[in-house]
Amino acid sequence: MRIEADTGIMLMSKRVSWFLLAFGVWSWVIWPVFLKNIWADQRSWQHGMTAFFGVHLVLTAASLALGTAIGILGIRGMRSARPDPAEQSTAPINAGHATR
Asked: Which residues constitute the domain of residue 40?
């Protein structure tokens, strides 16, 4: 059995691309602050790192990795996004005919 991959192009709207980028930025704003607060919590350290801190460290690392990947998708979507119909000019396109 042979499975062929779909190599078609996926297009995102600018709105979706901006949302993905904002999500990525939001992840990088929120999660480091969260980890700093967990670090300062007394439950994080008792003769070394506790499981409480370890779990939250893994959660933060995974969230930053996903936020980065999602933000990159947003950037790539913005770079290749087709123009919104509202932004396009309504002037007719000159099909190579000379105007006098």
From this structure: 20-83
> Would the pLDDT of 92 be above 80?
no
Model confidence, pTM: 0.69
Nearest to 57 by CA among 37, 80, 29, 86: 37
Domain for residue 6, yes or no?
A: no
In a domain, 50, yes or no: yes
82 is written with which tokens?
């087709």
Count structural domains, the chain: 1
Any domain includes 60 = yes
Judge whether 30 and 86 are in contact, CB under 8 Å: no
